[in-house]
Amino acid sequence: MVKAQLQQHGKPPRPSAAQVLLYIPNIVGYVRLSLLLAACCTKSTITLRLFLANFLLDGLDGYLARRLQQTSAFGAFLDVFVDVLSRGTLWAWALEGPVAAVPILLEGITFTCTHKAGGAAWKIGCFADAPGWVRAVMANGFKTPLGALTVVGLMGCPLWFWARRFAPTSVLALPAVGCIVIAGRCLAAAVELWVIARHLAALVNEPPQEHDA
């Protein structure tokens, strides 16, 4: 009865938690997590293919979410979470010593800043007051020249460093590839630092909250 009334007024019924968890885009996210786990248990040649498959699937979940109208706050979180976890794993393998912690911490802190409100809320107005170069990166879901370079840098830079160390004969280990992905990663780092600085400024200027005695 309630479902019929909602549909009559043009409002679809709210999906249950189980339905959200089984959205096809979210299943793609679980597959990516499985590929990451498998990559951690395999040898270098297979590992490279698993990580490539993981990253290639990154754009599929968003496309399916829009195509199937299966968008959700959980799905938005899962997408970025798997990205950060996958890249962090690569960075930890690719670089020796404390230097590996730099990109991992940078992405982790940025993830915390942008997802404080949860899900996809970080996209709503998060970059409205950003400088022009930041908006040029983020515009239209990274579908700009600068946005594409940033995504290539985010995904490709840790993969390039990993390939240089464990698969030096791979095409991905070529110096020309490194020039592109490092430039993209530096651009991503600039945006991340802006996001962190903006978030800290908002915290400093936030009015104090009253607490019950």
TrEMBL record:
Keywords: Lipid metabolism, Membrane, Phospholipid metabolism, Transferase, Transmembrane, Transmembrane helix. It is a multi-pass membrane protein. It holds the Pfam family CDP-OH_P_transf. Coiled coil: none annotated. One of its GO terms (cellular component) is membrane. It is found in: Membrane. This is CDP-diacylglycerol--inositol 3-phosphatidyltransferase. It comes from [Myrmecia] bisecta.
